Amino acid sequence: MKLEDIARELGLIELTPEVSAGDEAEIERGYASDLLSDVLAHAPEGGVLVTLQVHLNVIAVASHAELAAVIFAGDRRPDEDMRAKAVAEGIALFVSPADTFDIVGRLYAMGIQGTHA
Amino acid sequence: MEHLAYDIRNGDFGGAGAASRDLKQHLKRIGAEPDAVRRAMIAAYEAEMNVVIHTEGGRLEATVSDGQLDVDVVDRGPGIPDVPQAMREGFSTAPSEARALGFGAGMGLPNIERNSDRLRVTSAVGDGTRVSFSIMLRPEAADQGARPSSLSIAAELCRDCRHCLASCPTAAVRVRESRPSVLHHLCIDCTCCIAACDPGALTLLDAPDELAPAADGVLAVPPALLAGFGDHAVETVLEELRGLGFAEVVSVHPYEDELRQGVLELAATSALPAPVISPVCPAVVSLIEVKYPSLVPHLAPLASPWEALQRDLGERDVTYVVSCPSQRTALLAQQPTEQRHTVTPRLVREAMLPRLATRRRVAHHASAPRPQAAGADDLVVVSGVSHVLAVLEQIEDGRLTDVASLEPFICDGGCFGSPLLAEDAYVAAWRWAATAGAAPGEARSHERARPYRPRPGIRLDPDMAVAIRKLAELDAETRALPGKDCGACGAPTCAALAEDIVMERAVRALCPYITAEKESAS
């Protein structure tokens, strides 16, 4: 499943079109957590992260864990600083008004699985 | 060999990740395995966050050498009162500010441990914490990484005297920018550089750095420790060791006797080429695997005394007092979960001295004749690195035909001669011989768990065609260097520098003679 398809299906607000537009990479796995050490330890490479945390360290962790995208749940929006950093690191950012549970449920229904599934 | 350093500020949540990100770029450029890069990043980032969250600030220093990344993160306090507790997943003392950002879930150190091939945490309350970890950057290096290293390097203690360079029997040590480092593919975990290092920059890894006896715990000690407390009788020492809180104290010496017997029996059957070499000293075994692979068939396929003892103690909670890095490495390689249970003789000594202060001393140790193993006349005991090298050379050249079996030790005077022990080798050995009857014990001989394997320590490249090309380069580089073996470049010999240049660990300009020539020409 490509990032753009996920964004369309879930009605996500796209914050970094310069990263996600035309990105052909297939997203197969995902992770949901607000503990950044947990993300670092367990998030799948090339996957998508669903989180409530909205600050610069999320981008650092996403970059280290080599994640493709981050979806901020509960309508939380990153500032421009964070957005710029994400663009520089090649990480796509999305916002959803839905809460984590619903976002993950819909991702799962689309065939995106957890790290160890 | 490359050295990187980054300052980390307390509370700088925004800047955190800068060091690990830069390190990542670096590792990618030198072509490290993607998995190794990822693990290195996670470990470095967690270490960085720990400094940001918990400390007054600190510094992350990284050294990239042949196939290995070594990271040292040192902070300025406040220190960790209980390191084992801090290592447990879920334990955290992070302030709410850090928790609000999604840190402080007690996963930092466990995450570092999980992602590194070697981790050491030492801390002094009020002073600061040092987190050192290593990651093998290539799969073949990671293979050897299963073989942990037990040498500790504290670069800040180095006085740049370079005595270590010439001491190393495998030319594994380098000193560059006043920082000693070790080429792990060559290191045999012996005590030579430790003995040469006066300021103590190179020493046995002392993790953990405190004794934590469990109620049903066993303390396993070398005879040299039992006989190493001046004029205190071995019985007294044994008693006080038990008094430290261990249910049982066992000595490794019955396993040494048992191994000797096993080697002599093997030598009598002529199942192995003569002389049969005893694996009593794990450092000599490594030396043979690295430097004399043709002698591997001479090694008796038996467990070393410490390995055999570890097998018999099975699942019990054992604290091993090891007197050299190679013993520690051998124990960890055989049973990796024992990591937290090898301690240095110094640690035990410090705990024992106050206890022994009030104990009665012996005026004179009455000497008792020691029973000799049958056939012991056929055994040549060789100790001291120069003698061991000379004898191994002789065997390799086919010049040692009249010796049936060999018991080689890297340390002068055998295990009694480790530089990590306080008592002189000859005094301790004499005292032990006089009073050994006081420490009875039994032992069984064990087959070797890990087969002997020549280590490709001196191979220039896994691809033979490339290796041949590099050999030609090595030849040319060696000829270009002055051949003075002065050590000024930080390598022990010109040949070692030539190899460093060919393997891209160093550049020719490190040689002061070549640089001087260039300058006078221009």
Features:
heterodimer, A: 117 residues, alpha/beta, Udp-n-acetylmuramoylalanyl-d-glutamate--2,6- Diaminopimelate Ligase, Chain: A, domain 1, five-stranded mixed β-sheet, 41% helix, B: 522 residues, Heat Shock Protein 90, five-stranded antiparallel β-sheet, 20 helices, 16 strands, 38% helix
Walk me through what this model shows.
The complex is a heterodimer of chains A (117) and B (522). With 117 residues, chain A is α/β, with parallel strands linked by helices. Chain A has a single domain, classed as Udp-n-acetylmuramoylalanyl-d-glutamate--2,6- Diaminopimelate Ligase, Chain: A, domain 1. Chain A has helices at 3-10, 17-20, 36-42, 56-64, 80-89, 100-109; strands at 13-14, 30-32, 48-51, 69-72, 92-95. In chain A, strands 1-5-4-3-2 form a five-stranded mixed sheet, sandwiched between helices. In chain A, helix 3 runs parallel beside helix 4. Chain B has three domains: 2-146, Histidine kinase-like ATPase, C-terminal domain (Heat Shock Protein 90); 218-438, no CATH class; 464-521, Electron transport complex subunit B, putative Fe-S cluster (3-methyladenine DNA Glycosylase II, Chain A, domain 3, Orthogonal Bundle), CATH 1.10.15.40. In chain B, strand 7 and strand 8 form a beta hairpin. Chain B has a five-stranded antiparallel sheet with strand order 1-2-3-5-4. Chain B has 522 residues and is α/β, with parallel strands linked by helices. At the A-B interface, helix 3 and helix 4 of A face helix 1, helix 2 and helix 5 of B.
